[in-house]
Design goal:
This protein is α/β, with parallel strands linked by helices and about 240 residues long. The protein is built from 5 helices and 8 strands, in the order βαββααβααββββ. It has 2 domains: about 120 residues, 2-Layer Sandwich (GMP Synthetase, Chain A, domain 3), CATH 3.30.300; about 100 residues, Ribosomal protein S3, C-terminal domain (Ribosomal protein S3 C-terminal domain, 2-Layer Sandwich). About 35% of the residues lie in helices and about 30% in strands. Helix 1 links the parallel strand 1 and strand 2. The longest helix has 27 residues. The chain is globular, with a radius of gyration of 20 Å. About 20% of the residues are buried.
């Protein structure tokens, strides 16, 4: 039997940083872990169309959060540009940014079941990311749930990535290599099986390989399909401190 290991956990401290960075005593450790998980879960649920790639959370104290969000559709989070003057665009963008920041504070207070506290500080940074494994998985799941045959989804995905590369001038939307695997009752067949495609190279055992990985489930009429996506971005010698 092959021994599998998670591609991201395998590279923590080498090419992957920790998504949560803080220190806590035994008394508060489990509380912080569950709170971070709640923030990520509710953001992914409420703003699903934003296509989140990563959400980094760090703390200095119990009431000081620093959240870094990487997403593709920033307009869902902080609004789109208007056709007014530059000053009004900046003011509108800052207002929507503050509203989103306030929404995150409300999520935290809701989880802690406490009243509004002015001492809580949330420092928010939002960046637009390139094509990631999570955005590719979202594209595949969206089409599978609309009962599009998986082979057609693969062809649509290739065209979608090529279109993004042309329109947004990405160096390579696919990166150096990519692998996609779909498992389950494909096209409603009675017997479950796996189907996969592969482009370029994908050295899973090379720790210096910067591999982006994402797993997602598609809920269809004939069952649940599992979608796994691996994307090789580059091979680097840069390491992160654990």
């Amino acid at each position: 039997m092959g021994q599998k290991v998670h591609p991201l956990g395998f590279r923590v401290g080498i090419t992957q940083p920790h998504l949560s960075q803080w220190y806590a005593s035994k008394r508060y450790y489990s509380q912080y872990v569950l709170e971070d998980n709640f923030i990520r879960t509710i953001l992914l649920k409420k703003y699903k169309r934003a296509n989140f790639s990563k959400i980094h959370i760090s703390r200095k104290t119990d009431d000081h959060f620093e959240i870094v969000i990487h997403a593709q559709n920033l307009g869902i989070l902080i609004g789109t540009k208007s056709e007014k003057s530059e000053k009004s665009e900046k003011s509108e963008k800052s207002e929507k940014f503050k509203l989103f920041q306030k929404q995150i504070k409300e999520f935290i207070f809701h989880y802690r079941q406490s009243e509004w506290n002015s001492k809580l500080r949330v420092v928010l940074h939002i960046f637009r990311c390139k094509t990631s494994a999570s955005s590719i998985a979202d594209f595949i799941v969206e089409h599978l749930e609309r009962r599009v045959p998986y082979k057609v989804v693969f062809n649509l995905l290739k065209k979608h990535l090529q279109r993004q590369e042309r329109q947004e001038h990405f160096d390579s939307a696919l990166g150096i290599g990519m692998k996609i695997q779909i498992s389950g009752r494909l096209n409603g067949a009675e017997i479950a099986r796996q189907a996969s495609i592969r482009e370029g190279r994908l050295p899973l055992q090379t720790l210096q390989a910067h591999i982006d990985y994402h797993f997602q489930q598609a809920y269809t009429m004939y069952g649940i399909l599992g979608v796994k996506v691996w994307v090789l971005k580059n091979v680097t010698t840069k390491t992160y401190k654990i």
